[in-house]
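Example noted here:
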Amino acid sequence: MVTQPKGPPPNAKSLEDAFFARQDAELLEKMREEARLKELRAALREAAPKADNLVIDRLIQLGIGPETVLAVTLVPLIVVAWADGSIDPKERAVLIRSAEERGIKPGTPAHQMFERWLERKPSPHLVEVWKQFVRALNAAFEEPERRAMQAALLGMARSVAEAAGGFLGLSKVSAAERAALEDLEATLR
């Protein structure tokens, strides 16, 4: 005679616990990933406050963090400011405001690098690496994202160029700054 066991087999509870533990771990990991993406989005939004959601999403998809966005954003501004050989106090004020708007706080490594750029013109090598990176970034972006990035960077760079008032206040942008803006625009195409 075969006897029927009373209740579930002894390992059923273990199986059930393991199943729910795995589901809980997956949910916990999903929650952590959502929190990480939310933090990354906020950091990218701080580094690029005028970027639209398409650009932010593409940056995340490409694995580009806020530090890289800061470099992509600030290098052209510094290049335009140094185009005529020195940084005018009005240009400096626009640059500092741009850096602050992007969350560059005094005492941070980003701020120290930025301060060096205000004191010494960045090397041609940095500018060339920036251009190569931006060209690659352009290739990874769709047309609307490219246009948005181009408009934002050119707009900020123009505000730096216009800050000094040009030669004797007659022209808003010096010839050297205009050439730097044209080079920037050609790079962003």
User: Anything to note?
Assistant: The first helix runs from residue 12 to 47.
